Amino acid sequence: MSERQLAIWDKNDLSKPLKLDIVDSSSGILIPHYDYDSAIVYLAGKGDGNIRYYELVNNSPYVHYLSEYKSSSPQRGLGMMPKRGLDVMKCEITRFYKLHIVKGMVEPVSMVVPRKSEQFHVDLYPDTVGPLPALTADEWLQGADKDPLLISLKVGAQKKSYKPQVYRPGENPLDSKNLSNMKFKFVEQTHAVDYSATSTSVVKKNLENRKRMEESKEEGLSAFDSKRKNLDMDNIADIPESELRKAYFEQMEEIKSLKGEVALKDKQIQQLREELKNR
Question: What pLDDT, in 10s, does the model give residues 151-197?
């Protein structure tokens, strides 16, 4: 028979499987890829174009079918990117590198959880295995056994370093607490501020600019007064409403423009005062 099956076994009792599902009927070999962080197993058949994935749980029925990636291009095999290389801001939980039947062609295939917010999701990215070993070669030869050193993808998502790191047995230098201390270490350092004297030419130029701004402010106010005098305020009742409305909106525009100029000049004057104060 050419049935391909997915079975879950109890390591303490191999007499019968806890769960047995028939995947399909095909002659290609199913190659499983297991993600320990999310407890998802991916089944990719050699010569197939699709990738099925299931979630594993501790209780019956032990396996839950999630979905299937479909493609018309068959594959020779898959390579799996470590979690440290995933784009956590886009909720990418797995990335495969698909080796096509066509010679020399490799295609990246990303498994992305649909989330609206582009933030780090703790439920998708628990602490994962880091790049440093938990044991030295001598300790392993002596039969020692330790849990792997874990890192937080939230801290290391945007942190990349190619500097050599010294490994000390019993220490996890990639712990999230240590990385946070390294990240904010620069805050403790004092930085001297340069308050060197400004040159005379710069001060002279700033004073000239200040005088020019004050003159332009006076010219704008005088022009506004001259336009206002053009209206015969004594015979305002004989002026058509359309001309009064037009004059009103023109004055409002002039007032708005003058307010903007005055605010800009005041800001520039304040900057000049700060420069003179820091001499």
Answer: 888 854 444 444 445 555 565 555 555 555 554 444 444 444 444 44
Q: Where are the beta strands (DSSP E) in 113-243?
A: 128-129, 150-151
Interatomic CA distance for residues 39 and 56, integer angstroms: 6
**Helices and strands of the chain, counted as H and E runs:** 5, 11
Which residues sit opposite 110 in a β-bridge? Answer: 95
Q: Which residue has the tokens 């849990």?
A: 147
Residue 180: Cβ within 10 Å count: 12
Token pair in block for residue 271: 């900057």
Other Cβ atoms less than 10 A from the Cβ of 171: the count is 12
β-pairing, 63-69 with 51-56?
antiparallel
* Angle of CA points 252, 257, 261, to nearest 5°: 145
Which pLDDT score, from 0 to 100, does residue 223 have?
A: 55
Q: pTM value?
A: 0.53
Is 52 in contact with 68 (CB distance < 8 Å)?
Answer: yes
